[in-house]
Specification:
- The chain has two helices and four strands.
- It is an alpha+beta fold.
- The chain has one domain.
- A four-stranded antiparallel β-sheet has the order 1-2-3-4, with no helix packed on it.
- Helix 1 crosses helix 2.
- The protein is elongated, with a radius of gyration of 20 Å.
- It starts with 18 loop residues before the first helix and ends with a helix.
Length: 121
């Protein structure tokens, strides 16, 4: 028997969040390499490469610094789009709560539109 799982609690923070932000929170950002800004830098005698990539979906910017000798990631920083992050001290959003809101907006609203069209037809 499959154990019964709890239903995710509604998170009021997701209500006003743009759909693009919810999509990235649920399924991860898309940072394409093809449009990355690239530069060589020197730091502490090491030759490094920095890439700056922007998420196609929500606009978040990811800055990565790599060691060119070992190709290890040395540092990563994100500059989130305005409104993407939650207020300090409010904790992380549960992915299931984000997914619940995505389903509500995409599927429930789509079904409501279908019903309206059928009634008006």
């Amino acid at each position: 028997m499959i154990p019964r799982q709890r239903q995710p609690k509604p998170d009021p923070r997701v209500k006003d969040m743009p759909l693009e932000y919810l999509a990235c929170r649920e399924g991860s950002h898309h940072f394409p390499w093809a449009t990355a800004k690239r530069e060589r830098i020197r730091e502490g005698g090491r030759e490094l490469r920095r890439t700056v990539r922007t998420c196609d979906t929500c606009g978040t910017v990811r800055i990565d610094v790599y060691n060119t000798r070992t190709f290890e990631l040395v540092h990563r920083h994100y500059d989130y789009a305005e409104g993407y992050t939650t207020a300090p001290g409010t904790g992380r959003m549960e992915r299931t709560s984000v997914r619940r809101e995505l389903f509500r907006r995409i599927w429930d609203e789509e079904e409501e539109e279908k019903e309206k069209k059928e009634v008006n037809a």
